């Protein structure tokens, strides 16, 4: 630490209780009250250098200086300077002495070579040219914030720290702790980040603004510095202490910190990780930050959502929220993502300018067109991979939030439908979310279960998921039938293996079953339903069937017919009522009765009977034509 010594005379000041004075042969003639301390001094040395005391002592020999910068210690140092007594100045007291000198009016107008000018020269030529000293001076400015702002000390310190941070050789004066931190990690933040993180939020914000304005620091380095600062002042997963169980934290300061951090985010896409952005959004939600801050964090998170994790999306709801997690915040991110995808897709969907004309293109133009096409193809492939990662991320998020018993069904469906179909090559994770929601909400009625299951595409379920779904008692029976037939359609298309034959045999046996008595009882219906659900699990359907290739092809054709019938969405209750009035009186409306009707379909007329199982105006008309 650099020090400056002012004056050469030995120290003759002494303290006696609350009184401080100086040994001299001349009696004191001035009394000054500073910070509950009485100074008995002489007028001549002080008034010759202090304009304030000249004005105050014109009418009285006793003066009081309330709220003096630096208190009694700073005033004593100024008084010693007036007496020519040696005074040591360093980074620890330079700001306090500079503010005290300004308060006393120790300027060049009072005396040449006064204390104020000497301190300014020492700051500019020495302290603010060294990293450790500059930081120490800057950290001391908040104690005298108003005076430092008026004197320009704070702005000079901020500018000096920013220059040292952006200077490639500025790290030579960095503290040992910062150097150790840089050498301990392969992907460490910039050398100055740890030291700057000790500043208050206002000073940190001003330093980072100056660093960004210099234009010599990479955006990634600025992002790393922001991450270090957030970890320093927003611990416990970037949540306030009372939310994490700590308590006793000033929410206003944390809210200001999050808002300042959001305003400092670099414009570059990969300057900060998506996890960091979502953690800031999590803190902003809990702290009730400004809507502009939340909107900016939402926009930035949507730009790189594919890099996030499921835990990052689990943003706690504000106090008094109806759900455990803030699903509205995630929905806002997905909506922003959809807007960005739509905006990015518009220019790609339009034909390039050179393709609109019919004139002959040169060889260079053709090469340029091929290069542009290859570039667009690569970009589209990368975009598709990113969307697939986003689909997995959202499905994982749905699995977690589906455990919340207070989550409304409409919000779950809205988030599930916010992801485009191309982002889900398979629906296994989405099925897990649906199954979890059904188990947590066993009181759901039939129409709500049907509404929820519409988000599933049974064609995209794996074999394991299909087997589980076919035996899932919580799913609507129509979904079970869809899963069963789509799985057996894939098996029939393969046309190989004993397992395929057994599954197709089960379906064929189910279709060829003769009708039983209308009053056969509920036990028969339950057994039929259990048999239907067991087909997807690989249960054999019986023997004595044609296992030739031609027989399997006929089974596959029949399954294809069932698929076309199933694709007609006939789940509305109004359609069910219309079917019941058109059908024969003995047909009941329940799902179990439909399974029973399915089991009783004559082998020769599957289409006519399926038109009764899944009613619609088109199916009825088709059956009449048959």
TrEMBL record:
Q: Coiled-coil segments, which residues?
A: none
**Positions of the NPH3 domain:** 190-490
Q: Which SUPFAM superfamilies match?
A: POZ domain
Which residues fall in a compositionally biased region of kind Low complexity?
365-378
Q: Which UniProt keywords apply?
A: Ubl conjugation pathway
Any Pfam family matching the protein: NPH3
User: From which domain of life does this come?
Assistant: Eukaryota
Q: Which Gene3D superfamilies match?
A: Potassium Channel Kv1.1, Chain A
Q: Which pathway does it serve?
A: Protein modification; protein ubiquitination
Q: Where is this region: Disordered?
A: 344-378
InterPro entries per record: NPH3/RPT2-like, NPH3_dom, SKP1/BTB/POZ_sf
Return the similarity comment.
Belongs to the NPH3 family.
What this protein is called in its record is NPH3 domain-containing protein
